């Protein structure tokens, strides 16, 4: 995973789509946030997180209400996570579903980390910001999407699933959560608490064949993503030092230098030696 914090272009498009529905000018928001349209044209492109954070603030300055993030839930579920939701819905149990969520969420964004913790008969799904605290619009969207999706997968109302949900003081999701009977508490980051026994309940949409097919797809994509990042590191090592190409290949996990050279040429169009020579 790349070290630069990012958010998927699909999520960014969801923000802009809702902003447009709210009467805000999309072009003006993009200009003020410093986001180029080219960053939003592909399905799996990454937008630097600080630009998306700036976009949140520009939406707020342009007149978006405090519940703006809460209203993104439908767009988040149908557009942003795409195939990941199919993977999560088709898992056999909630535990398996959440394991996939925490493992593959970094493909959607790496500026928020999801962690499942168990103890005292309860399970807690933490959403922690990496570095600077994420804007409350984004935290609201993520929190309510998880609450609604988990309850839907179990076929029960949110109040029957969750013991409590912790929100940061700035979040506006508390109003909706209380309206459906979920206890809301204050915390330093969003946290969903439910009985540990719920983790082993079967999901309504469980489909072993579909789940395994989607799981193979996401695992393969994750390997390709990691390999791409390793080749970016190779470029740094090729320019920052005099390590032999064979040593760089070994450090990146390639058993044969020829495999590394082939992968490098496929990614960048030239061999590592040509890159080092500045061709």
UniProtKB/TrEMBL annotation:
Q: Does the keyword Transcription apply?
A: yes
Q: Does the keyword Cell membrane apply?
A: no
Which keywords describe this protein according to UniProt? Answer: DNA-binding, Transcription, Transcription regulation
Q: Which Pfam families match?
A: Arabinose_bd, HTH_18
* GO CC terms of this entry: cytosol
> Entry's Gene3D superfamilies?
Homeodomain-like (1.10.10.60)
Domain of life, source organism? Bacteria
The chain positions of domain HTH araC/xylS-type read: 231-278
> PROSITE patterns recorded for this chain?
HTH_ARAC_FAMILY_2
Q: Which InterPro entries match?
A: AraC-type_N, Homeodomain-like_sf, HTH_AraC, Tscrpt_reg_AraC-type_HTH
GO MF terms listed in the record are: DNA-binding transcription factor activity; transcription cis-regulatory region binding
From the Swiss-Prot or TrEMBL record, give the protein name: AraC family transcriptional regulator
Organism the protein comes from: Pseudomonas laurylsulfativorans
């Amino acid at each position: 995973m790349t070290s630069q914090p990012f958010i998927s272009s699909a999520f960014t498009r969801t923000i802009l789509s809702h902003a447009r529905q709210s009467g805000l000018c999309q072009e003006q928001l993009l200009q003020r946030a410093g986001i180029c349209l080219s960053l939003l044209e592909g399905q799996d492109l990454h937008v630097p997180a600080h630009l998306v954070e700036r976009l949140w603030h520009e939406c707020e300055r342009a007149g978006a209400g405090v519940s703006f993030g809460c209203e993104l839930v439908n767009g988040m579920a149908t557009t942003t996570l795409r195939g990941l939701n199919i993977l999560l819905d088709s898992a056999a149990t909630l535990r398996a579903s959440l394991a996939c969520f925490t493992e593959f969420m970094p493909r959607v964004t790496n500026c928020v980390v999801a962690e499942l913790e168990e103890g005292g008969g309860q399970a807690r799904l933490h959403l922690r910001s990496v570095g600077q605290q994420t804007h409350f619009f984004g935290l609201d969207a993520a929190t309510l999407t998880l609450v609604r999706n988990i309850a839907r997968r179990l076929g029960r109302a949110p109040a029957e699933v969750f013991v409590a949900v912790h929100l940061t003081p700035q979040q506006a999701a508390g109003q909706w959560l209380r309206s459906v009977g979920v206890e809301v508490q204050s915390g330093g980051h969003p946290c969903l608490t439910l009985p540990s026994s719920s983790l082993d309940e079967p999901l309504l949409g469980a489909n072993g064949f579909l789940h395994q097919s989607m799981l193979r797809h996401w695992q393969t994509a994750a390997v390709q993503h990691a390999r791409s990042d390793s080749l970016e590191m190779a470029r740094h090592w090729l320019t920052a030092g005099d390590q032999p190409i064979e040593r760089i290949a070994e450090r990146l996990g390639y058993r044969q230098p020829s495999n590394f050279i082939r992968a490098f040429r496929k990614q960048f169009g030239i061999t590592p030696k040509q890159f080092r020579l500045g061709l």
